[in-house]
Amino acid sequence: MLVVATSGTGYVLGSGNAVDLAGLCYTCAGTMMVAASANSLNQVFEINNDAKMKRTRLRPLPSGRIAKPHAVTWASSVGFAGTALLACKANMLAAGLAASNLVLYAFVYTPLKQIHPVNTWVGAVVGAIPPLLGWAAASGQISLNGLILPAALYFWQIPHFMALAYLCRDDYAAGGYRMFSLADASGRRTAAVAFRNCLYLIPLGFIAYDWGVASGWFCVESSVITLAISAAAFSFYRDRTTQKARRMFYASLLYLPVFMSGLLFHRLSDNPQCLAENPNRIIELPSFPEAVTESEEDDQKKKVRYVTAGPQGRAPVAYASIAPFPFLPVPSYVDQ
CATH number, domain at 23? Predict the structure, then answer.
């Protein structure tokens, strides 16, 4: 359900003014089917491992309630159907992302769990793709604005699964999995990795505001909840006990729904009415062929003007003055 929720959130964020409810339902349904296929294949490949773990030994395959051929048939059918649904009702980009994520999860991440601890980071990539899929299904493209929620999912998964791997390290060892926490007897590196990735979440609220995805209130709310999960991670780093790890795990469970809800509630869409209500809000940009020029009182002087969408309007993402892109022109906001 988490995969479907993140995909649906990505769809709404990429929809602009009007959300196509039918398209949203098709996207969520297709995502759910592909995710079911990936999870089924994961359990097919890990029958013997799951049978050795307390938390997974009662799953349908290791417990013998479902035969392996039936599971393979189900996984293949629902995976193909979900991809076809996305291709027909959304677009080929969304279908391609879904199919790629299925392959990455079932045929890369799953075997990697028994080979190298880097599997956690590969799994984080898998978890970050569904919101990008939703954005692509709604907008038909992948843009920088659409990477904010996937980035949050990626960085969030690291402390979430580090806490889980620490709490269940004996179970993972029994199952034959190579988790990061198993090579860290003191838990210090595990806690440090979790805390560091919590800190990476801090700028996302500002970036969402600066790129025009959400209002300034989301920037504030995102900072508050990110500092909260960071505090839980830092507490675990200072005192590496099961209690502190569980507290960080619960904090991660709370963080994601609050973050996504805030992003949806405070999202900004391109509203044409704002252009009429705030015609004087401008950004001075370097001249380029598509720009509109206006004559001032002196015909010898002309100024390139870009009209923004209201008091909360922001520059297009290609002109946002954000740290990773220092080579782009920096706009100056001017009231006239």
Answer: 1.10.357.140
